[in-house]
Structure formats: structure tokens, C-alpha cells
Predict the structure.
Amino acid sequence: MKKGRVEFWNGNIACAEGAIAAGCRFFAGYPITPSSEILEHMAKRMPEVGGVFIQMEDELAAIAAVIGASWGGVKAMTATSGPGFSLMQEGIGYACMTETPCVIVDVQRAGPSTGQATKAAQGDVMQARWGTHGDHEIIALAPNSPQEMFDLTVRAFNLSEMYRVPVIVLADEIVAHMWEKVRIPDDIEIVNRRKPSRPDEQIFGHELDTGVPPMPAFGEGYNLLVTGSTHDGYGFRKTADPLVHRKLVTRLVNKIRKNAEKIVDFEIYGCDPEDAEVMVVSYGCTSRSADEAVRQALEEGIKAINFRLRTIWPFPEKALRELAERVKLIVVPEMNLGQLYFEVERVACGRCPVILVSRIGGGEMVRPQDILRELRRA
Amino acid sequence: MKEHFAIKYLRREILPTVFCPGCGNGIVINCFLKAVSDLGYEDLSGFAFVSGIGCASWCISPYFKADTLHTLHGRPIAFATGLKLARPDLQVVVISGDGDLAGIGGNHLIHAARRNMDLLVICINNLNYGMTGGQVSPTTPENVTTTTSPYGNIEPPFRLAELVAAAGANLSARWTTYHVGQIISTIKKGLKKEGFRFIEVISQCPTNFGRRIGIDKPPDLVKWIRSICTVKKENSNEKLRLGIICERYRPGYVSVLKSLMERVRGEG
Ligand SMILES: Cc1ncc(C[n+]2csc(CCOP(=O)(O)OP(=O)(O)O)c2C)c(N)n1
Ligand code: SF4
């Protein structure tokens, strides 16, 4: 692998630069702490790279403009935090239903409501999963460093283009405002949406229930019918036919669910997973404390691992289930009062006890010693 | 028999439309396509159509044989903004209802006018929320009964064409579905201009509006609509003014953005 270029960036700048590297040429947003640096950086950078930046009148408009731009054939992104993310949910559902590739960055802050607007939290895990109404599947990635703000934003674009699905970069205030070295590889893998090969191809249908149809842009002669209402493979509204709805929504869900193994991405730090006795399941900024806790546990002779999720949704069920089979205890540290914890408990399904280590308020991180204390119990 | 001029712009396989008999939506479709035909467009390939949710939003989707984006309730202008900026070469047209554009979506309407975003927006203002059963809308006249103003509407309505004119649009006009010739020529004018262009068409919804005010025959409802409007130039407190409310010649957003980009990239 070539060495690439090294920059000193905070997470938000790394995210914006990752988007540009991935080919993003449209950004619409609305100011909100702690994500505003992405908006500000894009305001400066988009014109430089020949892209469009627009600050919209609200987040409802920002996500709408992003989806409109994506149908114009341009890779598009928006970035927000808590309250803005809530406002975007209807638009995210529209992007799911119309299979519109786009990237939404949510830099998590303490809620509910305006909560502690400048302070870190991890309270949007379930909103990322279920924030919009109706059956749907989504992809959400959880970076834990400025480097990953760059890398995972690139991956978010690639996944959204590959699966025609909105992808959420679920960051947090700590990762967004942390300054670190970011290495930019010389060659970055870029995925572009598949274009139809025939003029009569179905843009919203596929013979496989896991299939991703091709996507042309507006102005290419396809007479596109794009609608968030239930539609057939050609886009015609079918708002009463049970079979059309069943077929469409099942495919929208299955194209992510049944491809989950290809999408999930995690990292294991610690002892040989075969020997592990205790396991931390972590993501985002909290995973940094988890790594430290595991390092100290190993020093104390505790056979520990940190299973760090870089993809939160879809959830890495298979890998986690196998590990839960082996370990005696799972510890889930989160900056919320239990969100991913319940998902881990569901997958562990009584194979071993699952303990939640929470810390909320003031943007204070879960500390390594809080995790270590639980690891020592096993 | 000679084919109707509009057929070539429509998806003929799904005609007739689902609109109620006597609905004004068909008149607006006809006017738009006549304007397009008069201007010599063979097809709609240079256009992109965007709508929200409501009866009016169904004019373009699925009937227009063109690229159509049928979006969320209230948001078509915001979707259209992204689409236009991604594809400035396309003539982006929004056709939607009063509830959609001025109620839930009112913020996008005034901001797009302020930005002078290069969109042609046609608001079919049937003075109520038609699709959901005839509730009061931000344009329902005072004292009128609807399903959610059963004792008469106590709220003053927005005057959309004036609102949009005040917000900065390059063109803002109001007609009723009776004024077919004027609508066509205003659409033609709009299609030739840049920036934000807004045409409000006061339209009849016999099913959910007319019926509730005791005027269920479409021609009678059109007459009633004419009676609440005036072609006189001076502002009237009682009546809605018809005609061109404002015309400006400011550069549209796309050309302003283009010069910014040239400046930043040192090409200007
Ligand atoms: C967020 C949201 N709120 C409410 C609705 C329900 N809804 C559908 S159409 C409509 C009103 C449409 O009225 P208007 O825009 O005036 O169009 P018309 O049907 O009168 O042509 C409403 C409220 C919705 N689809 N989405
Ligand atoms: S309900 Fe009203 S607006 Fe809707 S189609 Fe019928 S007449 Fe037209």
C-alpha cells in the first residue's frame, strides 16, 4: 500500500474531506453544533472542487435538496446533529423508499430536545435505525477517530451508491472535535451507482428480492417516475395493491438484511478471540475507552477483547453470536442509558450476561476504569 | 381524427386522470402543455417536474411523459432546488397545491423566492386541502366553511402571489382557471425567464370545497371564484388581484452561483 498524504484535521474536517474524496459534489445543510464545521468546510471547499454548496432554510429542506441532487446524478451529503437529525427523518424515509443514494452525517449531542447542545452523547443509535416510519433497513457507520471520519465517510458514499440506500455516518461530538493525524491514501476505492443497460429496465424493481436496481439520472431520457408512495418496478404508484407493497418493501429490507455480512465491519482488539473470556462491545468515541480498558485488563491477565463496531446498522449479529457463545461476560459501554446494549442482549440471548456501562451528561466519556471494573468481575 | 395537441406529452396508457369531474387540475395541465407546445417543444425531455403531496401534485406524476419527482408533502421546492443545482441545464418546474406550497411548505416558498432560485412554480390554489377531505388551508377565504372550519374560517388567508412577490421573485402572477389564455401566456413568459417564477391559479375543487359552501356545480364554482377576484390594478382588501403582480429582471441563483464558482476557481 502506498503511503499517501498526512493531514492534521479534526473529525468534522476529515469527514468533509472524505466526502470530497468519495466524489461528493453537492452539500446542503443547516447550522447546528457540533456538526457545523462540516457545513463551514463544505461552504469553502465545494466551489473549489466544482461542487455546489447551499445553506438551506432548515433541515427538512437540506435532506430534500440532497435527494433532489442525487436524482440529478450527483453524489450528495448533508450533516447535522440531534434536533436536525430528527427533522430529517421523513426525508430519510423517502430516500429509503425511492432508493436514493445519499449520506447523512449525524454528529451526536446530548438530547432529548436541545438537551446539552455542545456536549457529546450516543443517544441517536436507535433513531438512526428506526427514526423514520415504516419498515425499512438502513446503513449506519460509527467512526471513532478523525481517520475514520475520513475513511467511513468514503465508505458511506460507496455503500449508498452500491445499495441505493441512505447511509448515516453516526459520529459524536468527541470524535468530531478531536484533532488527530489523518492519512489520505493515494488510491481510494470509489463506487458509483450502476446505470441501466437497457432503456426499458426497471428502475425500482428487481427479479431478486435482494437485488439493487440500476439508477439513471434526471435528464437522461428515461421519463423517470420517482415517488415515495408504493410503486411498481417502473415507478407507477400502486397505493392499494397488497402484493406490490409487499414485494417492494420486502426487497428494500432484504437488499440490506440479506447482504448484511458484506456490509458489516468490525475490529477486534485484545487477546486471541478464541481464548477470550470477557468482551466489550463498543462503538464511536466510547470504543477508545474500551480499548484502554482491555489493554489494562490484559496486563492484569484477564483474557479480554474489544469488539468494536464500525458498522452499527446492520448489526453484526453472526460474529457477535459466535463470540457470545465463548465468553463469560459482555460489557457494553455507551453514552446513553442503554440503546445498543439491548441489541447486544438480544443477540447474546442468554448465552452470557450482558452489562451496561452508561455515562450521560456534560459530554463526559465512559472512563476506562468504569469498563475495567466490570471486566474484573468475570 | 387529429390527435389532441397534449397527448404527445402525456403517458397515454394511464389516461384518463383520476381527478373528480370538473376539477380544475385538468385545466392547469392543459394550459401548461399548450404553453410548451406553443413554444415549439416536441417533447418534455429538457424538463424536470417536481411535486409534493396532494391532488394538485398528481398533475405531473404519473401523467407527464417526462422525468418526475413526486416528493414529500410540503417539500417539492426544496427537492427541486437540489435537482436544479445538480442539473442547471434542465428546466425545473414545480406544480403543487396551496396546502403543500404555502401551508406545510411555506418556508421553502419564500426562501426560494428570496434566493431567486431558477424554478417555475405553479400553485394550484383550490382554497382547501382537497386530497385529505376538504380541510381549511392557509388560503381559504375568511368565513368559509370547511370540514375544519365548520363555524366559518376565522383566519385571514395568505395572498400567495403578493407574498412571493414581496419575497423577491422574478415573476409572480395570479389567475383563475377561467383565464386560460392568460395562464398560457404567463407560463410562456415564465418559461423564458430565469430566477424564481410563481404562477398562482385559483382553481375549483367541486368535491371538497364547492360542496361544503353549497356550490357543487363546477361552472358555478368557477363563477364564485371569479367573484372573489378582480382584474383591477389597485390593491383591494376584499378581492384577490389577478394578473402579473411583479416582474423583475434579477439574475437567477444559478448564474450568481456560477460566477461565484468562477471567481473561487480563478476562472472569472
Ligand atoms: C407530513 C404530512 N402531513 C400530512 C399529510 C397528509 N396530506 C396529504 S395531502 C394533504 C393536503 C393537500 O392539500 P393541497 O396541497 O392544498 O393539495 P390539494 O389536494 O388540495 O390539491 C395533506 C395534509 C402528508 N402526506 N404528509
Ligand atoms: S378532491 Fe378536489 S382537488 Fe382533488 S381531484 Fe377532486 S375536485 Fe380535484
